[in-house]
Each structure stands twice: as C-alpha cells, then as structure tokens.
Amino acid sequence: xxxxxxxxxxxxxxxxxxxxxxxxxxxxxxxxxxxxxxxxxxxxxxxxxxxxxxxxxxxxxxxxxxxxxxxxxxxxxxxxxxxxxxxxxxxxxxxxxxxxxxxxxxxxxxxxxxxxxxxx
Amino acid sequence: xxxxxxxxxxxxxxxxxxxxxxxxxxxxxxxxxxxxxxxxxxxxxxxxxxxxxxxxxxxxxxxxxxxxxxxxxxxxxxxxxxxxxxxxxxxxxxxxxxxxxxxxxxxxxxxxxxxxxxxxxxxxxxxxxxxxxxxxxxxxxxxxxxxxxxxxxxxxxxxxxxxxxxxxxxxxxxxxxxxxxxxxxxxxxxxxxxxxxxxxxxxxxxxxxxxxxxxxxxxxxxxxxxxxxxxxxxxxxxxxxxxxxxxxxxxxxxxxxxxxxxxxxxxxxxxxxxxxxxxxxxxxxxxxxxxxxxxxxxxxxxxxxxxxxxxxxxxxxxxxxxxxxxxxxxxxxxxxxxxxxxxxxxxxxxxxxxxxxxxxxxxxxxxxxxxxxxxxxxxxxxxxxxxxxxxxxxxxxxxxxxxxxxxxxxxxxxxxxxxxxxxxxxxxxxxxxxxxxxxxxxxxxxxxxxxxxxxxxxxxxxxxxxxxxxxxxxxxxxxxxxxxxxxxxxxxxxxxxxxxxxxxxxxxxxxxxxxxxxxxxxxxxxxxxxxxxxxxxxxxxxxxxxxxxxxxxxxxxxxxxxxxxxxxxxxxxxxxxxxxxxxxxxxxxxxxxxxxxxxxxxxxxxxxxxxxxxxxxxxxxxxxxxxxxxxxxxxxxxxxxxxxxxxxxxxxxxxxxxxxxxxxxxxxxxxxxxxxxxxxxxxxxxxxxxxxxxxxxxxxxxxxxxxxxxxxxxxxxxxxxxxxxxxxxxxxxxxxxxxxxxxxxxxxxxxxxx
Amino acid sequence: xxxxxxxxxxxxxxxxxxxxxxxxxxxxxxxxxxxxxxxxxxxxxxxxxxxxxxxxxxxxxxxxxxxxxxxxxxxxxxxxxxxxxxxxxxxxxxxxxxxxxxxxxxxxxxxxxxxxxxxxxxxxxxxxxxxxxxxxxxx
Lengths: 120, 754, 139
Known about the structure:
The complex is a heterotrimer of chains A (120), B (754) and C (139).
Chain A: H1 2-20, H2 25-46, H3 71-102
Chain B: H1 12-30, H2 32-38, E1 41-48, E2 53-59, H3 61-84, H4 91-110, H5 114-132, H6 139-170, H7 175-179, H8 182-187, H9 191-205, H10 214-217, H11 223-232, H12 236-244, H13 246-249, H14 253-276, H15 280-300, H16 304-335, H17 351-365, H18 371-385, H19 390-417, H20 433-451, H21 454-469, H22 486-503, H23 505-518, H24 522-544, H25 549-571, H26 585-603, H27 607-627, H28 631-652, H29 668-690, H30 696-704, H31 714-722, H32 724-753
Antiparallel strand pairs in B: 1-2
Helix pairs in contact in B: 1-3, 1-4, 2-21, 3-4, 3-11, 3-16, 3-20, 3-21, 4-5, 5-6, 6-9, 9-12, 11-15, 11-16, 12-15, 14-15, 14-19, 14-23, 15-16, 15-19, 16-17, 16-18, 16-20, 16-21, 17-19, 17-20, 18-19, 18-20, 18-22, 19-22, 25-29, 26-27, 27-28, 31-32
Chain C: H1 4-27, H2 35-53, H3 55-62, H4 66-86, E1 96-99, E2 108-111, H5 112-138
Helix pairs in contact in C: 1-2, 2-3, 2-5, 4-5
C-alpha cells in the first residue's frame, strides 16, 4: 500500500504543480489544496502505515500494545491540516480581495507592485 | 549663511563640540611628555573576543602628531563653523556629523588593531559622505558625496581584504605585533597582493592619481569641512596608514617604486591643475593633492631625511592649509564670491584675514623664517637622499614647490593686495572673531615653529620619526639656516621659478584651461561608469523580476525538478522495485478515488466540478487516515474539508467562472513539468520508504505518555504536552491568518462603501 | 436560506454540536478528540447556524466577537505554558493535580495540559468563525 500511496502523492503533486502554473488564481488555490494533501500524506506515509491500530493506551496498561500506529507523524499531520486550512482561507480571501480591487483573476494582469515597463 | 553679527552662534549645540574637541586636545597635549620620554602609551579593552578583536589603543609619536592635529584643528574648525553656519536650521546635524567624524578619525589614528582601525576608517568615509552632502538640496552636492563615498568605499573593500591577509600572514591583528615582524611579512608569498590591496585603500583615501578626481568635487562641502576633512585630516588617513605600516611593508622595490612614482606624478599633476583654477577653494584642493603626493613620495623611502621631511611637512601642511581654507571661507563670507579673477583689494576691508592669509601663504610658499621654509629645505634634503633616483625626485619636488608658490600668490596675495577684477556681490567686511581665530592661530603657529623649531623637534618630530623608523634618535635637526648647501640652492631656484610662474599665471591659466578641456576627464568617465552600472542593474532586474507570477513559479518548480532529479540520479542506488503486497479492493478503491478526483480538479473547466472533485480527494485522504489507525487526523481532515467547501462556496458567489466556455484547461508545457515533479516526488517517497525508520522519538512518547503525562491518547499527549510549544506556535499562526484575512475583508467593505 | 424546517432543526443541531465539541475536547487526552477537533466541531455548529439563520443571528447567539474568543484562547494557552515556569519547571511542562487520588485510582485529574487544550479549542473555534462570518458578511 505504501507504494500505491507514493504514486498517489506523485500524482497529487503533479496536478498541484500543473494547477499552480495556471493563469487563473482560483486554479492556483486548488493546486495549493492538492499540494497540502500531498504533503500531509507524505509525512503520514513516511512514518509507515499500520492498519487498524490507533495509538491509544488501553485502560489498565501503562504502554500501548505492540504494533500500534506511529503517533508522531499523526500529531504533525493534524496540526498541518489546521494550519493548511488557515493558509488556504487567507489565500482565498486574498484572491477575492484582488478580484474586487483589480477586477481580474488572471495573475498575468495583477501587476500593481511590478508594473509592466514601457515598451516591453 | 547669515551676515556676521546678526547671530553669534547656535547656543549650547554650537558650544558642546568645541568644548569636546578642546578637551581632547588638552588630553593629547598632556601626553606629549610621556610619549616623547617613555615611548608608546597603550590601553586595551576586549571587544569581540571570539575574533580576537580588541579595542587596543596605542599612542606613539606618529599617532600623537595626528591626534594633536585632529583635535587641535578640530577645535578651531568647530569654533569657526559655529559662526560660519550661525543660525543654520540644520546646525545640530552638522555639529553631530563633524563631532562623529573627529572621534572616528581619532579612533583611526590611535587604534592598535587592524580591524578596529578599519571600522574607524569606514566611519570617516560615512561621516565624510554626510558632510559633503550636507547641502543635500543640490544635486551636485549629492553626486559629489556619493562619488567620494563610492571611490573611498571601494578602496576600503580592497583595504579590508589586504588587512585580513596581512593579519593572517602575521598571525595577529595587533598593529604593534605586525610591525614587530616586518621581515616575515616582506618575505611572504602574499606580500605583493597585500601591498597592492592596502595601497589601493590608502591611495583612494588620500586621492592619489588616478583616484584623485573625487577630492576636488568634495569641495561641495561647507568650507570648514573642506578645511578639516579634505585637507588637514581625513585625506591624510591614507598617508597615516602607509606611515603606520611603513615598518612592516617598506624597504622593498615594489614599495619604493609604487609610492615614489605615484606620489611624484600626483604632486606635479595636481600642482599644474591647481594653477588652472579660478575658484580659490578648488585651487587649494589641488594643492592638497600635491601635498598628499609629496607625503606619499617621502614614505617610499626609508632614509632619516625623507621621514623627517615627511613628519615636518605633515605638520606644516596641516597648519597652513587649514588656515588658508578658513581664510577662503572668510573671504567667501565677506564678499560672496571665491572667484580669484574677481577678487582684489580686500586688505583694507579685511585686514586680519589678509595678514593671516599672508603669513599662511608665506609658509606655504616656503619663505623664511616660516616653518614652510624648513619643511621645504627638508623636502629637498629628503628628495636628494632618496637613493634610487635623486634627480627625478628632486626635480618633481622642485616643480611642485614652484607651482605651489605661484598658487599661494594667487590665493593669498592677489585677492588682498591687487586691484579687484570686477564688482563683488557683497561689500567686503571682516569676519567675526571666532572665524578669525582659526586662521590667525594656525598661521601664527607656522611662524612660531619656523623661528623656534626646537618647540616641535623633541616633542613631535623626533617621536614621530622614531615610530616610523622603529629606532630612537634618528630624526634630523630642524634648522632655519643650515649653511649654503644644495637644498638652499634649490630653494633659491624655487623662488625664482615660482615668482616667474606667478607673474605669468594669467597667461598660463589660459593655456592650461585649453589643455584641460581637450584632455579626457575622469569625471565624465565616472558618470558613464555609474550609468553603465544602472543599466546592468535594470537589465538583471528585468531578467529576474519579470513581475509575472507564473514565470516565478515556473522557475521555482523547474529548479525543484532539476535539483531533485539530479540528486536522485547522482545519489540513488537505483529504482526500488514496485511491489503491491496484501492489497484488498478497498485500498485500490481509495487510491483510484484520489487519483480520479485529482485529475478532474486539474483539467475541469467548471468550478462546481472542481470543488466536488476536491471534496472527493479530501475524503479519500481521510479514508487513508481512518484505515491506518489515525482517527484524530481523519476527523480533523473531514471537518476541515467541510469548512473548505463552505468557504469556497461562499466566495464563488462573487467570482467569475473558471472559463467562460467551461473548456478543459490544457497546457502541455506545464503538464510536462508537473509530471516531472510528480515522478521525482514519488521516487523520493519510495527512497524514503526503503530506508529504515528511526522510531526513537515514537518509542519514547509511547513509553512515557501514560506514566509521566497521564494521557492515553498518544497523539493528543504529543500535541498538548510533549510538543506544546510547537502547538502554541501553530495556533498563533492560525489566529494570525484569520485576523489577516478579516482585516483584508474589512478594507474591501470600506472601499465598496466609498 | 428561508427554510423553516432547516432553521428549527439547525437550532437543535448547533446546540448538539456545541455540546459534542466540548465532550470531544474533554475526552481528548485519553480517546480520539482534543482541542483541534473540538474547536472545529464547535465552529461547524455555528457555521451551520449562520448558513441557516444568517450571520447576524449567529453573531448574536455567540454574544462575543469570535476574534476576541480566539485571542483569549491564545492567552489561555500561553498562561498554561507559563504556569510551569512559575512552578519551577521548564515552560510548557504539564502540571497535574489529582483530587481524591488513592492508589491505582487517580481521582479527578486537573492539569495545565487541559487548560492548554482549552486554549487550543478557543483559538481554532474563534479563528474559523472569524473567517467564516467575515466571508459571509463581506462577500
């Protein structure tokens, strides 16, 4: 299954790169979402996959039973998801704001900070 | 500038720098007997211990001469400025710059550490920049200031490299330590690079040909600044450095010829150009160049005569040149012009200025009984003692001296005692006493020391010469009358030639002006250089900063692909075999779900389809978390997916469609790059999975979660206990993102309402 | 949305989600759950309320500005972390008090860790609502 997920990560990344290179910034945001999914899966998979054994310590025991899932990447991914949401929300507001301000979603036309020079 | 008498100064801000400079002068003056009797005085404070940089200060003969000149002339210049710029709205700024400069310069000459010396060196460059550009409303002032800083700053970079090389060759950055092992330095393979780099710094600072062009332009500064920085002190920093390192670096052919030739060329070249000038200040600026050239010339040698001549001329020049600059300031102040062709007959209206100017000029021209005469005699003696080419050197000094005499006449005789050449802008009037104090005292000192050379012989000249030659009692005696000898004959020749040149200077100037205009100018070359630099800068900015987001991203992803692919190719043991053991239908189904959703998001032209597909991907990923024992992560993922859809749906109401015709989005080039990045990422993940997993952290968390942290959900224990500080940072980021988005939205609303 | 059924149902659903979110928060240390998840669930409850009944009513039901809730949460988390410093440990070390502990039974545990998790809950809850409310109102 690790191999299969590795391939899925590659496809997610490929699509993310493709979308982020689009002129329409809405597509860019979609790419951003796919990229954070890819990153989360990558961290999760790098900690190895263990089927059906969440890292919980049963009542009465001091340590979890042998062979529970790796808890560390789970903790990392959990916060990454929430932060990724914050980033996504901010980016979404930003493009919305850019659209109301500039009237376009085409990143090639968003050139207030670095305007096109004369004669080029 | 206000007319004299209206305002007497600038209050406490004007008085403080004067008091500070005077106090420093008194301090250094009190050190004279200690230095001349007991040798160098040292103080040391650790500064950057890790780099072995100490704030080590040494006061030996050479430092003392410089320190006295800096603080003494500094006091007079501060006093002068207080009247010259009386009531200037930015006087506080001016006084601050000037005081900072003085302190930096003092630090430079007493520092015993190469790196500390360099820091002070750069501080003088900076303060000089600020002072030249003090009249910042004028474009030419700003240009001159920038030019001075770029030229001396570029030299300083070379100097820094040279000093570091020198320090590493000698094994210490202590100047006294380096001087003590001059032989090691001279015989080292890096001697020539060190010399070239250090001389590049010294020559730019002291405006030697071909770096001389910045100094005349620096005359844009207020006159007291020119008197202080650009004749008496800062430009002598280069000379000081050469003198300071003379024991470590001199005595080789390279040293001798470089300093002798460039010094001689500068001296003659500058004194010819000095005669051409009609602006009194510019004429003085060129004679300053001449003096710097002469000083460099003497440092080339290591005979006692040459070094005695160096020390004497250093003092002589500082005294008369500062006096004359201040006189020019008085003339400018009193008449409103500095044009030598116009000025004349001022002796009646400005008697004190006229006398001070006359005395200083006689010293400059080298007439007895002034110190200038002794200086000139010693110059000839020193020139003749230069073993290699006495005739050439003496000839250069003769021509330079004769031209100096002529310039002295132009600057100090003609404006006061000859009839005026035209109407003056203001009715001439005498300057107030604080402005006269400087020229009078400095000129008088030139006369006093000339009549009584013993006053400076044992106190300044001997310790100065000793510290350059690293020996005691080497200095030659200063005499007004040394008998009929070759130097005296050369002096007489100088007078005849100089007076002739003065008599002819009107005609000579016309000829020189024609030549000068025909010759190529460093200044125009400078402008072209700067223009070229700007063109290159804008060219590379256009190249790197296209302003198009897609191009930046293309560069980033392209670089990512190349570096990852190259690393894989160079470091990877090979492609791991793809194996799919123990896969059930549900696994295939989840992966297929994710891949299908991904491709749909990438290619669809409909945003509703895109959102739905994104949801599919998110749920697929959540399912992976569910299957592989991560309930917390799965719940979070599902909740976030819900919120993402809500947010996109809200925003979509106001955004246009992805594509008006809902066409599929197909860009072959981007697809190729995306596929490339995807492939290398998959390869990297497979490589990671092929490595053994380091579970030490996980093991620790598992063992301690319950016994020590009292939690049964290990993931939660990690989040809120083991790695709570990380979590704190993360929630802070979430809050900041939310507030930033909120602020952005609020401004939208306000704009719409407007 | 002007659906009466939805509006009425939402009032109950939101209340349930809010209670459930607190439950998830409190049990988080031993079972799946915790501040992040609790905060997200609680926020979802109010988001549904806002969709069904309008942002103004959701804001009124919340009474406090969501950004203030988030900021307060960050402050609580910070205090919980600094508390360990007051007790002489390194910052962000968990501090525990067991009420009525005897032998194996640890009684009612109170800890700075729980306070920290409450801070996380409030930050996530407040931040999400800040975003969603602002979007709904401004867009």
